[in-house]
């Protein structure tokens, strides 16, 4: 599989370096790269042995017969336009989250992918963690009974060690909500299923209207409840708790052991989980560490290769239904209106 990368920042660096940890590394080649600043792309070409540096997106599209897929690792606000151009040209796309900053834009991308019969993969990494997959199997086996409540958190400062300081006139700054809020919300949707209504309490940055801290309380269609906490400016142990009728699970949060920036035991790329009964007795303690340059990106690369080789057009781990639901919920709650209860209807008229 021959891959073209768009972008030359931290995420694309992780992609290139994590390829070394993929079980399919001998079957995948970094073919081409494009970045608006060509000099940066040329540095990546030298460091990671890309065959070609493109002058522009037009050149990327014109060369589509020489590669199999494009990885989009640019800034959030550019994803929609870039992915739309590629998909419209029948080019398979692995796009970093978020696919778009609005539900209807994301829906349009999936529709184009369906019409063109090409793969569109939304890069939400949470479900690829071996610990998460093992935990989900335990839940499905009934180890904690029926799940009725969960809490999941993503505190970006705890992940990276950095606090954003946006300028008041930065119109491209999306903030935490439409980016970092994705991971914890994935857990709620994946474990409890579709959300019926959501209430939100959000705070914005002192000098910018973008959301810095968000608390969503969701009623799921199966009557379960979830609380999703995300913040750019506050910290937490990055864990999730899943409460069932026979016990509970704590996913991630072992920062005493895993506390390196971008390689922490976060619930959005967990290394550990513990299972407890209703009396608080531990039933199971699982520790599945990863060797990764960037939050387990090689696991997504493995999955991507399997989708490509099997000619699948959608991921069963991050299906379009969950991808679209996340963007709809985050777009509808991207404000500081404390009195709003939002109905989640999958883009249908309300």
Automatic annotation (TrEMBL):
<dbReference type="InterPro" id="IPR036291">
    <property type="entry name" value="NAD(P)-bd_dom_sf"/>
</dbReference>
<dbReference type="InterPro" id="IPR055170">
    <property type="entry name" value="GFO_IDH_MocA-like_dom"/>
</dbReference>
<dbReference type="Pfam" id="PF01408">
    <property type="entry name" value="GFO_IDH_MocA"/>
</dbReference>
<feature type="domain" description="Gfo/Idh/MocA-like oxidoreductase N-terminal">
    <location>
        <begin position="1"/>
        <end position="121"/>
    </location>
</feature>
<keyword id="KW-0560">Oxidoreductase</keyword>
<feature type="domain" description="GFO/IDH/MocA-like oxidoreductase">
    <location>
        <begin position="132"/>
        <end position="249"/>
    </location>
</feature>
<dbReference type="GO" id="GO:0016491">
    <property type="term" value="F:oxidoreductase activity"/>
</dbReference>
<protein>
    <submittedName>
        <fullName>Uncharacterized protein</fullName>
    </submittedName>
</protein>
<dbReference type="GO" id="GO:0000166">
    <property type="term" value="F:nucleotide binding"/>
</dbReference>
<dbReference type="Pfam" id="PF22725">
    <property type="entry name" value="GFO_IDH_MocA_C3"/>
</dbReference>
<dbReference type="InterPro" id="IPR000683">
    <property type="entry name" value="Gfo/Idh/MocA-like_OxRdtase_N"/>
</dbReference>
<comment type="similarity">
    <text>Belongs to the Gfo/Idh/MocA family.</text>
</comment>
<dbReference type="InterPro" id="IPR050984">
    <property type="entry name" value="Gfo/Idh/MocA_domain"/>
</dbReference>
């Amino acid at each position: 599989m021959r891959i073209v990368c768009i972008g030359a920042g931290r995420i694309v660096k992780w992609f290139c370096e994590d390829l070394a940890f993929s079980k399919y590394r001998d079957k995948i080649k970094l073919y081409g790269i494009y970045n608006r600043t060509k000099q940066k792309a040329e540095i990546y070409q030298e460091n990671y042995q890309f065959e070609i540096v493109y002058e522009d997106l037009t050149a990327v599209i014109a060369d589509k017969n020489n590669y199999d897929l494009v990885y989009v690792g640019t800034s959030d606000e550019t994803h929609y336009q870039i992915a739309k151009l590629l998909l419209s040209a029948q080019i398979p796309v692995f796009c970093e989250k978020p696919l778009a900053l609005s539900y209807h834009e994301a829906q349009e991308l999936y529709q184009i992918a369906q019409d063109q019969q090409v793969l569109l993969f939304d890069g939400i990494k949470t479900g690829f963690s071996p610990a998460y997959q093992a935990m989900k199997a335990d839940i499905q086996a009934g180890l904690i009974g029926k799940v009725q409540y969960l809490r999941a958190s993503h505190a970006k400062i705890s992940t990276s060690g950095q606090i954003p300081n946006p300028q008041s006139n930065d119109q491209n700054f999306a903030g935490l909500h439409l980016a970092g809020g994705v991971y914890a919300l994935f857990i709620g949707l994946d474990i409890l299923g579709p959300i019926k209504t959501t209430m939100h309490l959000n705070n914005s940055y002192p000098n910018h209207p973008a959301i810095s801290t968000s608390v969503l309380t969701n009623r799921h269609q199966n009557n379960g409840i979830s609380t999703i906490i995300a913040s750019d400016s506050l910290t937490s142990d990055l864990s999730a708790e899943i409460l069932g009728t026979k016990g509970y699970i704590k996913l991630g949060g072992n920062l005493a052991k895993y506390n390196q920036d971008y390689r922490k035991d976060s619930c959005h790329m967990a290394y550990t989980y513990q299972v407890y009964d209703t009396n608080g007795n531990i039933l199971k303690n699982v520790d599945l560490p990863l060797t990764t340059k960037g939050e387990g990106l090689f696991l997504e690369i493995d999955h991507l290769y399997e989708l490509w080789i099997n000619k699948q057009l959608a991921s069963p781990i991050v299906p379009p239904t969950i991808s679209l639901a996340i963007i709809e919920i985050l777009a509808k709650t991207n404000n500081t209106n404390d009195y709003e209860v939002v109905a989640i209807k999958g883009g249908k008229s309300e």
